[in-house]
Amino acid sequence: MGCNTSSTRIKNSQTSLRAVLIIQNWYRGYKARLKARQQYALTIFQSIEYADEQDQIQLCNFFSFMLENYTHIRKEEIELSQLTESKQDMRDKQDYIHLIDVPDSYQGPRLQFPLTCADIDLLLEAFKGKQILHARYVLEVLFETQKLLKQMPNFTQIQTSPSKEVTVCGDLHGKLDDLFLIFYKNGLPSGSNPYVFNGDFVDRGRNSIEVLMILCVSFLVYPNDLHLNRGNHEDYMMNLRYGFTKEILHKYKVHGKKILQTLEELYTWLPIGTIIDNEILVVHGGISETTDLNLLHRVERNKMKSVLMPPKEINKDCNNDSKPSKVGVTISAHGRIKASGCPSEHLPKHEWEQVVTIFSASNYYEEDSNRGAYVKLCSGANPRFFQYQVTDATCFQPLHQRVSTMENSAIKILRERMISRKTDLIHAFQHQDRRKSGKLPVSQWAFCMESILGLHLPWRSLSSNLATIDENGNIEYMSSFRNIHIEKPIKEANSALVEILYRYRSDLEIIFNAIDTDHSGLISMEEFRTMWKLFSSHYNLHIDDSQVNKIANIMDLNRDGSIDFTEFLKAFYVVHKYEAMIKPEATNLGT
Amino acid sequence: EIAVAEFHKKIKEAFEVFDHESNNTVDVREIGTIIRSLGCCPSEGELHDLIAEIEEEEPTGYIRFEKFLPVMTEILLERRYRPIPEDVLLRAFEVLDTAKHGFLTKDELIKYMTEEGEPFSQEEMEEMLSAAIDPESNSINYKDYISMMVIDEN
């Protein structure tokens, strides 16, 4: 009897051990699959962002091409306006600002010039309370900031000491919560707590103007201890594409345009970089083999209006290697500090020993995508890195839900990319599908996807999210296009044209804005036709001229020979069948 | 063989996603995730042995793709470390549910997972609890839990 009980007990404990092992094994597998899905989503976001940057290089080339071939008067007007602006500038701005009244009913923060640290506190409190700074103060701050920036050299200098470390922060991209977190963890800027903000303060996030205001006000209070470097998003053209322009026009309906104009010039006066202790170079776009600091010190930095449209000559003997070449090389280590310490053989002029990349916007792509970081430096000591992540405490979801959210977001963006190249994709699929079965083996499908979309992604792992797969593991390639389509605002446009207009809508918006020098929101029919011809030839688009004429005529809604292009482009958006319509404003990545 | 070529591509894809420096290496701590993302379910002990097989002579903390590929290909070809079917998983919970309530209490679950078998770390335990435990009853209805996980994965 005793033996039986003990052997039962042993058998039971063996069974329960096996059960525990099974559950543990299953859970670890499940968790790993979640992590992998999270990483796939991140890879999608990164790939698309990188591809976007390549598109910008193409746009940049197009502008050069356009300016060379565009013989209309506008060209001279553009160059002319860039020259004469500065003279009238100062007087105009001052007058304009003083004409703006701040009404008694205004509940927001009121700044007192000259600014003091009390104003920094005031702003922080106000923005935490979701208030909006009055346009009058915005303009005044920008105006004063620009005056001061003009006096700065291309590279500002900092000296550190054991009691005075400098904190370097990377991209913030309008994420106000991240800035609050940094100040909370690391203290407010002051004479003993200097900061370098290395560009990309704006675009993508929802509070770009608030971030910029805090940084500018802090700069005005501590000009020697708060260093602002220009990033590729401190650029009026990038702002058009990546959300800052929209944010301003939305928050400042009356004075928005004036703010944008002021910003346009302010950006050009931001220093290129900061040099710490004569040893460390802090610059937004990183460096290349041809980086020559000596040249960059001498460059007239304010001539660089935009990354996308570099001037013919910034400086007679400058080889134009600062901003334009950086567009494709913008480094951002998402959440991780990438420190590759190896002496670089191909940079003989300055021996760069180590390159470190700092990125300060947590949850950049999506909730929980990454952490942010900053670094504290002091001569003679090792750099100290600090990481953080903004979490919305009220919705701390379990891991699988967070992964789902991120995954859905990534897949949605990817599908929108697919639909913008639907015609080319279908051609490729059908070319491979000799038997016209509507199905392709995974490897052929993956090959088409990669070559047409130009994205290096784990297609095999993603296939089940993007298309229907049959019992044999083959992909029904048309299924990807079933529940999603581009809204066609104009019946007369054929789908190939609609697809192209959708795909290039961000580029077109930028181009139209560049042509529209008086910021009226309108361009003439003639300008549109000429620009379109150049655009389609440069981008190799096969669009019937008659189609385009039809479109142009339709866009001229009030028959006065001009086109409201913003309205026109807004009309192209993707409809996901089972969801509310996704308008371009909603997606921050500006694909 | 076509199958082998396909496996190679699949393995390469899964590996590259974790190759953050684009130099054909991944952190050894991600190997478990990669292998599992390819549909295999080795135990911690088996994983440990696998890593010993693919590590460098002098461990660097990184695994190179050239060493990973042949080992992983063989695992896929031999269909080793097959995943746990749903019904087996359910029965495992039922075994632990000695009183046959249809649920396990939070304390019971913690005791089993952190003290027996290949014990969970605190992080793993907390993660599992956050999704599995019903805060009101402080217990896990394992049948519902399993169904939820299965739906989420499909």
Automatic annotation (TrEMBL), chain A:
Please give the Gene Ontology molecular function terms for this protein: calcium ion binding; iron ion binding; manganese ion binding; protein serine/threonine phosphatase activity
Gene3D superfamilies tied to this protein: 3.60.21.10, EF-hand
For this chain's UniProt record, which GO biological process terms are given?
Answer: detection of stimulus involved in sensory perception
Q: What is its EC number?
A: 3.1.3.16
Against InterPro entries, the record matches this protein to: Calcineurin-like_PHP, EF-hand-dom_pair, EF_Hand_1_Ca_BS, EF_hand_dom, IQ_motif_EF-hand-BS, Metallo-depent_PP-like, PPP_dom, PPP_phosphatase
Pfam families (UniProt xref): EF-hand_7, Metallophos, PPP5
Coiled coil spans? none
Name of protein: Serine/threonine-protein phosphatase
From TrEMBL, chain B:
Signal peptide (UniProt feature, chain positions): none
UniProt KW Repeat keyword: yes
Kindly give the Gene3D superfamilies that the UniProt entry links to this protein: EF-hand (1.10.238.10)
SUPFAM superfamilies the UniProt entry points to? EF-hand (SSF47473)
Question: One Pfam family for this entry, by name?
Answer: EF-hand_7
Could you tell me which InterPro entries the record lists for this protein?
EF-hand-dom_pair, EF_hand_dom
- List, alphabetically, the GO terms of the cellular component aspect: sperm principal piece
Mind listing the GO molecular function terms for this protein? calcium ion binding
Keyword set includes Repeat: yes
What keywords would UniProt list here? Repeat
EF-hand domain span: 6-41, 84-119
* Record-linked PANTHER family: DYNEIN REGULATORY COMPLEX PROTEIN 8 (PTHR46763:SF1)
Task: Identify this protein by name.
Answer: EF-hand calcium binding domain 2
